[in-house]
């Protein structure tokens, strides 16, 4: 078996898409529920910062929404463009972008960022800048749905998980493991590995990911510093529309529905 340790796991969008696109339906249904329930007026123009392969954009595009994305990794952005050519895609940094950079520079009705991408912004300055950029491009009455794992201040956080997905003749086993967490610098390091089994090849690749840690209080502080947002409701990663949650010191996976206030 080859073992080409690669520096950036996001340089392999074709495998990312197999492993992460598998379970798109619950997120898709949940997002549609949020657009209907929390956006004032129609929700037609949608933006996904850090859109990756566009696994959700493509489904929303097919459902009739106008979709746009921002993505830093050139290989991800190229894959997303091929997969969803009608997406208004910006190759850039989600902590530094403006409406004028999109092909159609009109305010968005809603944004979403479902699985921890906000935590890739490793400083308070970048995180605040991201939420300000989002507030600048989403109209008042619109929403931003943000899913992330918080670090609980009571109890032990989840340290590793493994899951498997298959597309056509390719099976990918994904292992995500947190190996270092410094709550003072607020940096968490994780390894993400793919075991890829296909008819004509077997491959193992591993990459490192860095995440910023957030307690519930730290998340609220960042939002307050950024301004322009209020927390309309909170859910968890079960995406159960009937079961909003109350965020506590024990909370780990939280989906914030942020409302853009004037
Ligand atoms: C966990 S993936 C999520 C992709 C997609 N949102 C999804 O739900 O499948 C994180 C993505 O964030 C992108 N990313 C990381 N930092 C970024 C930044 N500063 N600006 C834009 N994209 C970024 C990565 O390249 C990667 O595609």
From TrEMBL:
SUPFAM superfamilies: S-adenosyl-L-methionine-dependent methyltransferases (SSF53335). Pfam families: Methyltransf_25. It comes from the Bacteria. The keyword Oxidoreductase does not apply. Gene3D superfamilies: CAC2371-like domains, Vaccinia Virus protein VP39. The keyword Iron does not apply. Keywords: Methyltransferase, Transferase. InterPro entries: Methyltransf_25, SAM-dependent_MTases_sf. Coiled coil: none annotated. GO terms for biological process: methylation. CDD domains: AdoMet_MTases. This is Class I SAM-dependent methyltransferase. It comes from Blastopirellula sediminis.
């Amino acid at each position: 078996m080859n073992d080409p340790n690669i520096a950036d796991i996001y340089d392999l969008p074709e495998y990312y898409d197999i492993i992460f696109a598998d379970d798109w339906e619950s997120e898709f249904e949940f997002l549609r529920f949020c657009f209907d329930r929390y956006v004032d007026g129609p929700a037609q123009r949608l933006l996904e910062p850090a859109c990756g392969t566009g696994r959700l954009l493509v489904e929303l595009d097919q459902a009739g929404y106008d979709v746009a994305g921002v993505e830093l990794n050139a290989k991800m952005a190229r894959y997303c463009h091929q997969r969803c050519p009608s997406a208004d895609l910006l190759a850039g940094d989600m902590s530094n972008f403006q409406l004028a950079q999109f092909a159609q520079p009109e305010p968005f009705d809603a944004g979403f960022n479902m699985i921890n991408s906000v935590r890739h912004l490793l400083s308070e300055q970048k995180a605040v800048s991201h939420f300000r950029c989002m507030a600048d491009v989403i109209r008042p009455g619109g929403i931003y749905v943000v899913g992330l794992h918080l670090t609980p201040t009571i109890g032990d956080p989840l340290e590793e998980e493994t899951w498997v997905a298959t597309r056509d003749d390719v099976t990918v086993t994904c292992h995500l493991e947190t190996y270092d967490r410094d709550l003072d610098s607020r940096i968490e390091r994780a390894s993400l590995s793919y075991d890829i089994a296909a008819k004509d090849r077997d491959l193992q690749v591993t990459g490192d990911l860095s995440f910023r840690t957030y307690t519930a209080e730290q998340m609220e502080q960042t939002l307050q510093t950024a301004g322009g947002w209020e927390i309309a409701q909170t859910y968890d990663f079960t995406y159960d529309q009937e079961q909003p949650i109350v965020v506590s010191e024990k909370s780990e996976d939280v989906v914030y529905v942020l409302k853009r206030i004037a």
